[in-house]
Specification:
The protein has an 18-stranded parallel sheet, covered by helices on one side. It is about 30% helix and about 10% strand. By secondary structure, the chain is an alpha/beta fold. The protein is built from 18 helices and 18 strands. It has a domain of about 210 residues: Leucine-rich repeat, LRR (right-handed beta-alpha superhelix) (Alpha-Beta Horseshoe), CATH 3.80.10.
Length: about 475
């Protein structure tokens, strides 16, 4: 799961639990019209209203509904017909705390002027509201209780807008991903104006440099930092991160191609770090060994597409005993790497996709020793019927299995997977020896309820009801 969605999920659980347990809630189906929406007013104590993807609702329908309700939570994600006129209704919701407007693409700064009066608002999601500008940020800059602000893909936002955001006194989470006009000036404003910030997402913000990153590194409470696809970040910037953000637990450097071993060495002093993504970087065996020796608290490590990494360093992952996720897709590791990986008792997610040097023997060893996997990706590896048999007998909690492109697997090899009662997704695309007959036989006898199979000859929109399976 990405950094953004980890944080959003956490916030969502908090708000859902709060509103579901303490008040009345309504989740409206996306086929509802204005007429149907008015029925919601029959619940005068309703405080939680989820209208996600209700594309038929118009300004008139929303205005006629929300003014009669004491709402504290309102989700309008993907309500594409709504305009600024609808958002004027929020002025009549003085206790609104959570407002989600993601992908409401007709909304402009006028909507934010209405939102600016909400003194109890703590959570505001404006992702992909592409008409929002710096003027809108100015309108909400005085919200006294706002803690969560998502501005992802608000592409008109500039440094001036970031300065306005930096005046939000209690902000702890800020998502600026794909706001590509932001420069070092924006980061300087954030670094000096948001002392309570704990999470910052700068994914695809590729106009700032190491100077801006130095400013961000002064944020005293920052624990989560996403720098994926930030192509101007180099060793100097990471040195500032390593020196200043000593409480960092999450660092995403995916596709930051200028990062080398020297930059990685700079962050190896962050002893609290539990998540590190180096996918697509220029890191070599030297850097990976530094990570394995210095960051013993890591629970998630991604080295996907790190072409300069081999067994010489990957065997050192055995030192990371807290790992629950390891992504080695398209790395140069062989069975020697799998010997080290197979000792990671806490591992639940393992990605070995397209690791061409991994053999059937190595896979048999790994799946036989790792007993707690929930996600296993071995696509385009040397997976055979024997490997699937081993998976079925040693992975009782497996939920996701990806063996696409594994051309040695046959219909017979699928059948032992019936025993995996927790399996919910099986990817068989490009498995040339698998037929619809084999898939039908698997689904007809599986212990897993609701198993979804991806295969070119199987219609995923027509799930097959599962039947109990006799245990051998």
């Amino acid at each position: 799961m990405s950094f953004v969605w980890q944080v959003i999920t956490l916030e969502w659980k908090v708000c859902w639990t709060t509103w579901w347990e303490r008040s009345e809630a309504a989740v409206v189906g996306n086929a509802v019209t204005d007429i149907g929406l008015r029925a919601v007013t029959e619940q005068p104590n309703l405080s939680f209203l989820n209208l996600r993807d209700c594309n038929h609702i118009t300004d008139d329908g929303l205005l006629a509904t929300v003014v009669h309700l004491p709402l504290t939570f309102l989700n309008l994600t993907g309500c594409r017909k709504l305009t600024d006129a609808a958002l004027r209704a929020v002025n009549d919701l003085p206790y609104l705390s959570f407002l989600i407007l993601r992908c409401c693409r007709k909304l402009t700064d006028d909507s934010l002027r209405s939102i600016g009066s909400l003194q109890y608002l703590t959570f505001l999601h404006l992702g992909a509201c592409r008409r929002m500008t710096d003027a809108g940020m100015e309108a909400i800059s005085g919200l006294p209780r706002l803690r969560f602000l998502n501005l992802s893909a608000c592409r008109k936002l500039t440094d001036e807008g970031a300065r306005a955001v930096s005046r939000l006194p209690r902000l702890t989470f800020l998502n600026l991903s794909a706001c590509r006009k932001l420069t070092d000036e924006a980061l300087r404003a954030l670094g000096s104006g948001l002392p309570t910030l704990t999470s910052l997402d700068l994914h695809e913000c590729d106009r700032f440099s190491d100077q801006g990153l130095r400013a961000v590194s002064a944020l005293p409470k920052l624990t989560h930092l996403n720098l994926s696809w930030c192509r101007n970040v180099s060793e100097d910037g990471l040195h500032a991160v390593g020196e200043g953000l000593t409480g960092l637990t999450y660092l995403n450097l995916n596709a930051t191609q200028t990062i080398t071993d020297e930059g990685v060495r700079s962050v190896c002093g962050l002893r609290a770090l539990s998540f590190l993504d180096l996918s697509g970087s220029e890191v070599t065996d030297v850097g990976v060994r530094e990570v394995c020796c210095g960051l013993r608290a890591l629970s998630s490590l991604s080295l996907r597409e790190c072409e300069n990494v081999s067994d010489w360093s990957l065997r050192e992952v055995s030192q990371l005993t807290a790992l629950t996720l390891l992504d080695l897709r398209e790395c140069e590791g062989s069975d020697e790497t799998l010997r080290a990986v197979s000792g990671l008792a806490a591992l639940t997610t393992l990605n070995l996709g397209a690791c061409e040097m991994v053999t059937e023997e190595g896979l048999l060893m790994a799946v036989g020793r790792l007993r707690t996997l929930t996600h296993l990706d071995v696509h385009e590896c040397e997976v055979t019927d024997a490997v699937l048999s081993a998976v079925s007998s040693s992975q009782p909690v497996l939920t996701h299995l990806d063996i696409r492109g594994c051309c040695q697997v046959t219909d017979d090899g699928l059948q032992p997977l019936r025993r995996l009662a927790e399996l919910s997704l099986l990817n068989l695309n490009d498995c040339e020896q698998i037929t619809a007959v084999g898939v039908q036989a698997l689904l007809g006898g599986t212990a897993a309820s609701g198993l979804r199979v991806l295969h070119s000859e199987w219609p995923v929109e027509q799930p097959v009801a599962s039947a109990p399976v006799e245990q051998p």
